[in-house]
Amino acid sequence: MFPKIINTLPQWAVPCFIIFIISYGYIKKVKIYEVFIEGAAEGFATAVKVIPYLIAVLVSVGIFRASGAMDFLITFITPFANFLGIPSEALPMALIRPLSGAGAQGIMTEIFKTYGPDSFIGKVAATMNGATDTTLYIIALYFGSIGVKNTRHALLSGLIADIVGLIVAAHAVRILLGG
Fold first, then answer.
1. Whose CA is closest to 124, among 54, 68, 63, 177?
2. Between the CA of residue 88 and those of 19, 44, 78, 120, 163, what are the distances in Å?
3. Can you tell me the distance from the alpha carbon of 47 to that of 142, in angstroms, rounded to the nearest whole number?
4. Is residue 1 part of a domain?
5. What is the pLDDT of residues 115-129, one digit of tens each?
6. How large is the C-alpha radius of gyration of the chain?
7. Which of 9, 30, 88, 94 has its CA 20 to 30 A from that of 158?
């Protein structure tokens, strides 16, 4: 009975949340449709404003991979990554992840096809994908779209968090899932 409830609950989460928002707005006498349209217009304006930054990030990822810089960087950091317990086969995904979530998904899919999703490397790649974020993408896109020029400590903090996520992901898979 409990597994059935656990499997059914996510299916109802979004519809219940939407009903809750509409009901709450109705109780508070908010003009729901007008507010929704206003929010949608702001969302569209933001999307248009973000397009140049999105294109810049996507072109940068393409150049990084096509130029051979990624392969050079992987060769350079493989000994250090191995020392930290990160398999070198997962390094391409680890390097692309801060730049592009979609690029990291593509590389992770290649890893799954080559080594299998249940292999140690597949599990590490999947865990790394969940334990890290698209730091450079976030900074370029979101900070750029609102005009922030000085990111202060956001870049360094985000990259440190990504590195820690990569190391912990490899060790967590080794400890919890065997490898």
1. 177
2. 48, 41, 6, 12, 14
3. 11
4. no
5. 999 999 999 999 999
6. 21
7. 88
Residue 139 lies in a domain: yes
Range of the domain at 108: 49-177
Domain total for the chain? 1
96 within 8 A of 61, measured Cβ to Cβ: yes
The residue assigned the tokens 């109705």 is 26
CB of 136 within 8 A of CB of 169?
no
Greatest C-alpha distance within the chain: 62
Give the pLDDT score at 179.
65
CA distance 10 to 35: 27
Nearest to 70 by CA among 44, 106, 120: 106
* Amino acid type, 132: T
Residue 29 located in a structural domain: no
Q: Is 130 left (phi over 0), alpha (psi -120 to 50) or beta?
A: alpha
